[in-house]
Each structure stands twice: as C-alpha cells, then as structure tokens.
Specification:
Layout (H helix, E strand, L loop, with lengths): L6 H28 L7 H32 L5 H4 L1 H27 L4 H36 L2 H22 L22
Helix pairs in contact: 1-2, 1-5, 2-4, 2-6, 4-5
The structure holds fe (ii) ion (2 copies).
One fe (ii) ion binds next to helix 2, helix 4 and helix 5.
C-alpha cells in the first residue's frame, strides 16, 4: 500500500466520474430516442450502462464503502451517528434500479422497436440520477467529513489497504481498470454476472 493513497479522496473522485457518466447517458438517450425510427444501437447503449452500474458503481465502488470504509467507521461511531444504514439502503435501491436497467435493455434487444422499454429506461435513468446525486451529497458533505474527524491514521491506513485489495481483485477479475471498462469490447457482450 502506498501512503499517498487517500481512500476518501479516491471515493469522491469516483463520485464525480459516475455523475458525469449518468448525465451523459441520459443526454445520449434523450437525443437518440428523438430520432425516428429509433436506432438499433439503443439496446447496446442501455446494456453498456447497466454493466457500468453493476461493475464500476456497485462491484467496485460500493464494495469499497461497504467492505472497507463502513466497517472501520462503525468501530468509531454509533449507527445513529453514522447513518450507515441509510447509505446501505441507498446502495440497495441503486442495485434494484441497475437490475431494472439490465432487464429493460434485454427487452429492447429482443424487440428493438418497442417503445415501452425505451420510455422505461429513460425513467429508470432519471431515478438513478436523482438517487445517485443525493447519495453523493450525503457522502461527500456529511459522511466523509465525519470519517475524517473520527478515524485515526491507523484506521485510514486500514481502509486504504482494504480498498486497494478490492481494486486489485477487480482488476484481476476483469483485466481492466474501472472507467476503462466500457472501452473493452468484451464488456458489451458479457452477461451481468456481477454479484449483488
Ligand atoms: Fe460513494
Ligand atoms: Fe455510497
């Protein structure tokens, strides 16, 4: 582990990447679905987005929070103080939306002209954007500053070590870095096998 690795800073940087990716998906979807007939590539676009949610947001990022940061934080704060239950609930809600996104993209793939999945994907993406942006505000402005106050240097080193272990496992599993995943062509065709 390098001492220069600041786990909270890394998580906050990932938040910004995620928000930009969600916004860009929504904008692409808005523009593309205006076209008539809707392009056949739409199902692939939605499938890519579902993979991003399953892997980068959940399997990579949320795992670092749930398996590295939260358990260490729980030693220092009571459940009421930390609101970690709410953070975990948000993660569960995001997972449910991600599964709906995957299901709808499969429906669209099976019937490329169907208007209902196109509309539902737009609504799911809107819910994801709302939930994710509110969740990021809670983490960036409440939870992480609180963590900075209460965690000792040794605690932070432990969180960093656990986070780096999760990152390494992710790289070994997929052979890519998060964020670069969607440029890997095989990611477009692989099933959504990320554990939830
Ligand atoms: Fe986060
Ligand atoms: Fe989170």
């Amino acid at each position: 582990m390098t001492l220069s690795y600041d786990p909270l800073q890394v998580l906050m940087e990932e938040h910004q990447v995620f928000l930009a990716r969600v916004e860009s998906f929504r904008e692409t979807w808005r523009q593309t679905t205006k076209l008539s007939p809707a392009p056949l590539a739409l199902a692939g676009e939605a499938a890519q987005f579902a993979v991003f949610l399953a892997r980068d947001v959940d399997e990579f990022h949320a795992a670092k929070e749930e398996r590295a940061l939260f358990p260490v934080l729980e030693r220092r704060l009571s459940a009421e103080e930390s609101s970690l239950g709410h953070m975990r609930d948000d993660h569960e809600s995001l997972r449910a939306l991600q599964r709906s996104m995957g299901k709808m993209s499969s429906q669209l793939d099976a019937d490329p002209g169907a208007p209902e999945p196109v509309r539902r994907i737009a609504r799911i993406a809107e819910s994801i954007e709302t939930l994710l942006s509110q969740h990021v505000i809670k983490e960036d402005f409440v939870l992480f500053p609180m963590a900075q106050d209460v965690l000792s240097r040794r605690d932070v080193l432990e969180v960093a070590r656990r986070c780096q272990g999760i990152e390494q496992a992710y790289r070994e599993r997929y052979g890519v870095n998060p964020g670069l995943l969607l440029t890997a062509p095989e990611a477009l065709h692989s099933p959504l096998t990320a554990p939830l």
